[in-house]
Amino acid sequence: MTANIDAAMGFAPDYDSPVPYMQRTREYYKAIGYDPYRWAHYLEVPFAPMAKALSEARIGLITTAAPYDPAKGDQGPGAAYNSGAKFYEPYSGDTSQEHDLRISHIGYDRKHTTATDSHSWFPLHALRRAVAAGRIREIAPRFHGAPTNRSHRHTVTVDAPELLKRVREDAVDAVLLVPNCPVCHQTCSLVARHLEANGIPTVVMGCAKDIVEHCGVPRFLFSDFPLGNSAGKPHDQASQDATLELALKLLESAIGPRTTLQSPQRWNEDGRWKMDYNNLEQIGEAELKRRRDEFLRQKEIARSLREKAA
Question: MF terms per GO, please (predicted)?
Fold first, then answer.
């Protein structure tokens, strides 16, 4: 009966909605023996209006991707989660140069995207094309890496102020923040809030709608794609340029905080990929045990790296 009604009304199937990442993460952590994760949540959201036309603006870029280091194990396309490749302090890179930034250190969607095109998570080339087209005046001289710590306090009190200091040194007029994993989306949301509270307009370009909106940000461009593709579809320049253009339009058009713009692009026709990410209904007990053991192993690696970095 429901199927008949859906067909008559032209409804989409219920699964073809934004992935409930917070719910799935809570249930997943509980299933492998850990307390549910506490996601950042604010009612008040800062907002800094654009002071310049984009054609006169210098745009900054913040990423959660990590510079490739061959000494840190497999970080290639499709590599398993590799906490050894994490970074724990903000870093900066020259936007006039090429960079090999990867996402093996975080939990992107390894089933539905292969991480073979860094332009789908690091839109530096799309920004260069926007400069060439006269859409923006210039890219800031540096981009910056935001560590994906699970500690809200550390992000808010240490990393966000440091990133604010760096983008101020770069004299930016606005900043794009591009997360990848669920925690990355929270990290970028917290940093965006801090930048806006200090007068710098931002757009978070992401794929985890519930996490970003739960935290509360000024401007959010939502692409309903698998995690790891916040800047557009891989190997698809038209998709990447269209995604960036929506982010730029959002900078121009938002009149207040909590403004979400959803990209019209779809990953595929049926949307069934949304049923898979950390979905306990599709993970057997043997696989859960394997993941529990691997989580403990990766947690120990990350702990030792944090201690070395301290």
Answer: oxidoreductase activity, acting on X-H and Y-H to form an X-Y bond, with a disulfide as acceptor
